[in-house]
Each structure stands twice: as C-alpha cells, then as structure tokens.
Amino acid sequence: MNVLEVRDLSIELMTTAGIIRAVDGVSFSIEAGQTVTIIGESGSGKSTTAMGLLRLLPEDLAVISGHAILSGVDVVTQAKAFAKLRGRAVALIPQDAMTALSPVHTIGKQLGQAVLRKGPLPKPALRERSVELLTQVRIPRPEDQLGKYPHQLSGGMLQRVLIAMALAADPVLLVADEPTSALDVTVQAGILDLLMELQERTKVAILMITHDLGVARLISDTIHVMKDGRFVESGEVEQIVAQPETDYSRKLLAAVPRLGRWDGENEVVAQPREAVDLEAVDLEAVNGVNP
To answer: What is d(CA 126, CA 119) in angstroms, rounded to the nearest whole number?
Structure first.
C-alpha cells in the first residue's frame, strides 16, 4: 500500500520576473519501508517539490495543483486537514541543523515540543521519551545532552537530534531534504546508516532530496532524475546508475571528476567512479550550452 501517491503535481512561483513553473507535472508514489529519491542539479525543482508536498511554501507566492494523497488526505486540495498531519504523519529532516534549531532553547526543550505533538505527557514521561529518542539515534549519554544548547553539539550530533525530532510522533513518511550535505564524509556515512537502520525497524517511508548520486545510490530503492521541474528519467537505483537511458543522465555521470592512482612518474590511471556529486557537474556542458 502506498504511503504517498503524487499525481501530476505542478508548482508555480510568482517572482519579480514573472510566473515560473518550478515543478511541472511530476508523478510518483512511495510504499511503506521504501526510499524514493529525487536527484538533480541546483534549481531543478527537487526541494520545491518537497516543500510543496509539505505545504511549507508561501501561500501568496506559490500555486500548487495536482494531487498528493497522504493518509487519506489530499495535500493539494485539503490544506487545513493536512496541517494536522504535518509533524505527525509526515515529518521533515531539514538540511542545516544549526539553523533549523533554536539557539536559545535547549535540546531537551525542542525535542520535548516535538514529542508533545503526538499528545500531552507528564514531565517524567516526556523526559523518558526524549531520552529514548536520543538513544535510538545513537547519541551517547542522552540524559546529559537534553540540557545542552545547539552550539554545544557537533554538526553530526545536531543532525541526529533533528532525526529524533522527526521520529518523535511516529510518522509514516519522512521527507529528508539534503540531510547530509553540510556534513563531512565520515559523519555523512553514519547518518545514512542510521536512517537505513531506523527504516528497517519502523518501516517508515522516506522521500530523499539530494544532489549527490553517491547518497542516492546507497539509500534508495527508486530514483527520479529531475531537470527543469520535470522527471527526465525514473527507475530502480541499479538501472539509473549502471544503465541510464537519457542523454542528460549519462552526461551527468560522465561529467563527474574521478580520482586516480599514481602509476609511474607522470601517469595517473583513472579509477571507477564511486559517487556522483551533481553540484560539481559543469551544467553548461551538460545542457549543451557553449561557453
């Protein structure tokens, strides 16, 4: 059974330069325990798609059409009903933990507010639930962390706090918007491993937004490649990485620099690519634009 069913979703943004169709008729679905990733270059519309599905775009600047069904509620046509699901049935893991968390409130205070979205709890039970959530996301000495402020924790620890907050109300869908882009490679791997472990245990569905094909390759079941607000290719992760069908996807893969090993005095032998970072791609070359 599909947790989220999106049909012909379009999002138009009103700007000083006129109306821009940032998302143009995309359709996809996510089942329980499945990870679907939208990948694309900056400005492709992937984050706008996620924010539109969460109804977090300014109402006076964004026009959303189509259908997106979550827990029996149409996100597009039943905005007030969906507002009651946000933070409960569906939760967001934002990109930058340092800016997403309040600098003047403790970790315990902010995590407690997320827990209370599911219903009132007495203080002892609230603290117990908060400690339980921090333990789930592998934060050491969770009781000690509740009294700390965000600036006292590392970036990786803060990202784990955001994941704990997203899980506080036992959602059926997590929307992860570039959740590892601000982290170094070793911390990034730990966060992705954590997400996969939590998904295996809870069967939560995940909508992953990323520009990094290495991340998508590791965590995804299905990938949608986005360009100019449209899906130009969709398929299983192995098919997209190993046998891309569109010229755009192939150029994105081919344009990524490769690390090589030193072989002799002046020769560098290229190694098979391990990951793709679309932010590093020469977009003019990919789009066929002559410099």
So the answer is: 10
State the pairing for strand pair 230-236/173-177: unpaired
Q: Are strands 35-40 and 222-227 parallel, antiparallel or unpaired?
A: parallel
Side chain identity at residue 212, one-letter code: D
Distance between CA 79 and CA 82 in Å, rounded?
5
Tens of pLDDT, residues 66-112: 999 999 999 999 999 999 999 999 999 998 888 899 999 999 999 99
Encoded tokens for 2: 């599909």
90-93 and 18-31: which strand pairing? Answer: unpaired
* Tally of CB atoms within 10 A around 274: 10
In a domain, 225, yes or no: yes
pTM of the model: 0.84
**Residue 88: inside a domain, yes or no?**
yes
DSSP class per residue in 198-244: HHHHH--EEEEEESBHHHHHHH-SEEEEEETTEEEEEEEHHHHHHS-
Q: Which two tokens stand for residue 162?
A: 């955001």
Q: Residues 95, 179: contact at Cβ < 8 Å?
A: yes
In the chain, the number of structural domains is 1
Read off the amino acid at residue 30.
I
Distance CA 204, CA 175 (A): 10
Q: Which residue range forms the structural domain that includes residue 181?
A: 2-286
Whether residue 41 is contained in a domain is answered as yes
d(CA 42, CA 185): 20
Strands 260-263, 90-93: pairing is: unpaired
CATH code assigned at 247:
3.40.50.300
Task: Give the residue among 115, 45, 61, 56 at the shortest CA–CA distance from 82.
Answer: 56
> Quick check: is 291 in a domain?
no
